[in-house]
């Protein structure tokens, strides 16, 4: 089940904090609870993405994006993710998630997040491709930027993000059509 209570708590915790820019880094803390673990007694890979959600939604709330979404009646959806897991997170481990917008192209916003253990080691890193949508489909990022009152020109797209964008463009859709 999706952690709605934890989401509500995170929203309440972050709602009165100062606003930040779309590319500023925000930190949130989380605990790996018994219901987050798998049979190997570590944070389940699917649940780790849900915990990243618990940090990404407050990130949107603290940026101009949240106001633009509400005023325009827009929604956000995930259109892709690249994950790199490197260190185990065990039950009751406290982690810090750092979240920030990285850049955007003609369709998507790219959000980077990292999960840090209390010993200072990075446990995992994700790059999300996010789309803002309305009843007609994807809302172009330049239009989203205008609604947020920020420049429409993206920060430079890092080489590693661009490589992922290019790799994703080569993947067949629909997949597995043998």
From TrEMBL:
<dbReference type="InterPro" id="IPR029069">
    <property type="entry name" value="HotDog_dom_sf"/>
</dbReference>
<dbReference type="InterPro" id="IPR051490">
    <property type="entry name" value="THEM6_lcsJ_thioesterase"/>
</dbReference>
<protein>
    <submittedName>
        <fullName>Thioesterase</fullName>
    </submittedName>
</protein>
<dbReference type="Pfam" id="PF13279">
    <property type="entry name" value="4HBT_2"/>
</dbReference>
